[in-house]
Amino acid sequence: MQGKKIQQESLFIQFQLSDHVPVDNFYRRLKKTLDLDFLYQSTLKYYGKEGQKSIDPVVFMKLMLVGYLENINSDRRIISSSGMRMDILYFLGYDLGQELPWHSTLSRTRKLFGEETFLELFKQVLKLCINKGMISGKRQAVDSALIPANAAKHSMVERIVMEDASVFSRELNDNIEHEAAEPNESKDPKDNNDKGSKEKKVAPTNQTHYSPSDPDARLTTKPGKPMRLYYRAQMAVDTACHVITYIQAFKGNEADNSSLPVILPRLTGNMAENNIHVEEILADTGYSSGKAIRALTANGLKGYIPAPGTYKSSREDEGFIYDDNYDRYVCIMGVHLPFKRIEKAYEEPTVFKKIYESSISDCKNCPCRDICANKKGFKKLVDSADKPLYEYMQRRVESLKGKLMMALRSSTVEPVFGSLINYTALDRINTKGLKQANKCMLMSAAAYNIKKLLKYKTRPLTPAPTSAIGGLKDAFNWLYAQVIWPKRNMMESYHYRFNQYFKERNFNINTVLSFSIVAQQSRKRKEGFSFYYQFSAQAQRGGISKAQLT
């Protein structure tokens, strides 16, 4: 017999929310894992001693986390979604029927609390990840991404800078006198030959325009992105388990290489608070500059940063050979171009360039003068004043380990940015101002780390066949049999280097870096990475930890 459910609400019910939230529920586990009681003391300074009671600071932070965990960047939707979820209500400490805070309370409280409160929460989550063994700390991959600001390009207005009121008054009087001097000017566009009577629209730039609603947002673009107002998220990720160790908001037009000296002390400080010493920084070519390389040295860090695409380590293909004994260039015709002076780069005032010039008399009768010399009759070459630093870094990047580090960087930090943008509500900043944008990025990163934390499971390694070194040898034997030997005809040089590397180091654990040979010889990058992961699995079965592999 067919049944039919008739809805009839009970007048009196006995209901306990905790009984209806499963033990393995995400928010139940998070409630047990994350202790936010420290917020009561850290936010005490923002409240007075009289007046109505505010929203509980712990509840506020939990609601913020819910928004980023659920990929919601609207305060209204955070409240409406939380009210419909029993597990979220349990996480917040609310019961069925209890009214949640008003959505405007979230935005006001977010503005009230300082950046240090959100940073403290991020560090608290980071510490949980460290205590669980998810971070090695040795190697950090750094990258940036443009995050759209909560402001429109078409709403930008022109900047008006007046030194004082007298300047404005004088300009106004001059305009009035100019208009009075020509009272009979024809208003007929034909008489004035004013075909283009409409003023040309000037494209807005950061120097001439700004957004009244968000003055900190900056116009910028990059390949594949439209020109619009952005903030730039700078982020560092640990290479062991891809945990975010640092994130900060910068203005959208701020270059990566100028941000790195700011990033490094804060990144190393985050790790030093947990007694972890950072050793290596992996970054792309956008972070390359003399100032950035000097910052790495000053912080005691070893960097792997490729030189910019426009950088030239040698000019031999142009017909100029550098003579380091006399700091000069010599052209193929034997003419000397000695060092003349140092100039500031026009596009970057903090960057200096070395100028090398020949004399007009030397180039006067040269047969190559027409195709070589400039309009003034001499040849000019420009080098970076930091060329020795670039050369030193480039040699490191082009080494066997350096090539591996570049592949490791892109496979570490870039997927994390993709997750933040697509799954933790960082596709757009929903607040105004640089400080508020920084709060959003910190919360998004904290939510990402929380997801990693609750998913992470410590996997016990199987006992080594004889010892850790023995297991490592087994992994190398597998690598040799599966990769090196089948392709011996096409990679004899790799075969030789492979054997020499191990003989010199006597199978030390650090020789795991030699699996970069696999990625180098593989014609397809995906194939190289598949061999790498298989090799890693073999080594871990032999007792080598994931932290040692990375």
Walkthrough of the structure:
This protein is an alpha+beta fold. The protein folds into 4 domains: 17-113, no CATH class; 128-150 and 217-308 and 394-455, Ribonuclease H-like superfamily/Ribonuclease H (Nucleotidyltransferase, domain 5, 2-Layer Sandwich); 316-386, no CATH class; 468-549, no CATH class. It has 20 helices and 13 strands. Strands 1, 4, 5, 6, 7 and 8 form a 6-stranded mixed sheet that branches. Strands 9-10-11-12-13 form a 5-stranded antiparallel sheet, with no helix packed on it. The chain has a two-stranded antiparallel ribbon with strand order 2-3. β7 (280-282), α10 and β8 form a beta-alpha-beta unit. α7 packs parallel to α15 (434-455). The longest helix is centred in the C-terminal third of the chain and has 24 residues, at 400-423. The model is unreliable at 179-183, 488-492 and 505-529 (pLDDT under 50). InterPro entries: IS1182_transpos, Tnp_DDE_dom, Transposase_InsH_N. This is IS1182 family transposase. Residues 177-202 have a biased composition (Basic and acidic residues).
> What spatial form do the alpha-carbon principal axes imply?
elongated
What's the β-strand tally? 13
Radius of gyration: 31 Å
What do we call the CATH topology of the largest domain? Nucleotidyltransferase, domain 5
